[in-house]
Amino acid sequence: GEVAVVGGVSVRAPKSAFLARVHDIVRFKSGPDVLQIGRFSNPPALADLAALTVDTDDFDVRSCRVGDCAIRLPADAIGRFAREIDVKAPDAQQRGAALFKQILFDHVAAYMSGSVTGRMTQFDDGPKAIRPEQEFDGILAGMPEIGALVPGLPDHLRHGSSARLPDSTDFLYWSKEKFGIAPFITVTHVTIACPSEATCVMATRDVYSSRYLDASIALAIDTDTGGTPEAFDLVYVNRSRANALKGGLGGLRRSLTERRARGGLEESLKVIKMQLEKG
Q1: pTM given for the model
Q2: Whole-angstrom Cα distance, residue 165 to residue 109?
Q3: Residue range 210-225: average pLDDT?
Q4: Mean pLDDT of all residues in the chain?
Q5: Is 100 helix (H, G, I), strand (E, B) or coil?
Q6: Among 158, 76, 72, 172, which Cα is nearest to 114's?
Q7: pLDDT above 90 (res 105)
Q8: If pLDDT is split at 50, 70 and 90, which confidence band does 260 have?
Q9: Whose CA is closest to 202, among 2, 29, 12, 31?
Q10: With contact defined as beta carbons under 8 Å apart, do 271 and 249 qualify?
Q11: Which whole-number Å values give the CA distances from 193 to 206, 220, 266, in the listed order?
Q12: N or C: where does the chain have the smaller number of CB atoms within 10 Å of the terminal CB?
């Protein structure tokens, strides 16, 4: 199932102020629903994940197995918990958390380098395999405006550093956020490009999500209002896919997800407008 959320706001402040805040992503994303957040170095380091906590609310290493695990991972990664950790040991959860961080770091490092080896191409934590890159390609195919605004951006979002985008700024960050019945851990790739002096585009894609989302792309378009750099119009669109939105209760889940996402978007835009106009 797919969910799309669109919003916009006019801001009486230069768009450069908005882009500066985005670069300080830890401060920009702070809020009651963001439990933890950190920005990855370039190149990434395992220490970038030091502040991330992984406890039984995220997944229980003792009950994580292929086809039945509370956190999304490929089958070979899930198998490592049983092979490398004594699940009966008192520190099993701590060792499981450390192993999960290592697996996540390896994935991020492979993604940032453009390598295929080490990247998660399939999740085997449930009865049905999830292929996040296929879901991502499906969303991207339905957003031709991305390539129309910034030629080369779709390939850059699809292939990362192996398809470089000239004159763009890129960074990755991780976050642990409240959503649904349990928090989820995500890694997000941010690309900022300015195809003209009057317009800048910020595109984000999920690199990893521990639950709920199969793939997600967001686009924020910032355009000077009336040709003056002292104000700008911000248009935002987010499209996400989740297999949990399919099936008998899919319609209800979709309605609840859209309502929460739209409410969160409207609140975020109000906060951005208020903060920027206050200076």
Answers
A1: 0.90
A2: 19
A3: 92
A4: 88
A5: helix
A6: 158
A7: yes
A8: low
A9: 29
A10: no
A11: 18, 11, 24
A12: C
pLDDT reported for residue 254 = 47
Residue 187: which pLDDT band, with cuts at 50, 70 and 90?
A: very high
Question: What's the pLDDT at 164?
Answer: 86
SS3 call for 255 = helix
Compute φ and ψ for 92, nearest 5 degrees: -60, -45
Place of tokens 């978007």: 265
247: tokens are 């099936």
With contact defined as beta carbons under 8 Å apart, do 125 and 72 qualify? Answer: yes
DSSP string, 110-142: HHHHT-STT----B-SSSS-B-HHHHHHHHHHT
Residues 6+ apart with CB under 8 A from 10: 225, 231, 232, 233, 234, 273
HSE at residue 265, side-chain half, CA atoms within 13 A, is 21
Per-residue confidence band for 248, with pLDDT thresholds at 50, 70 and 90: very low
- Please report where in the chains the tokens 């089958």 appear, as a residue: 75
With 0-12 / 13-18 / 19 or more C-beta atoms within 10 angstroms meaning exposed / middle / buried, residue 56 is middle
Q: Report d(CA 267, CA 73) in Å as an integer.
A: 32
| Identity of residue 22 | V
Residue position matching structure tokens 């009336």: 226
Q: Which residues of 78-98 are buried (b: 16+ CB within 10 A; e: fewer)?
A: bebbeeebeeeeeebbebbbe
Phi and psi, residue 277, nearest 5°: -75, -20
> Could you give the CA distance from residue 32 to residue 47 in angstroms, rounded to a whole number?
25
**In the 8-state DSSP scheme, what is residue 49?**
G
Give the type of residue at 211.
R
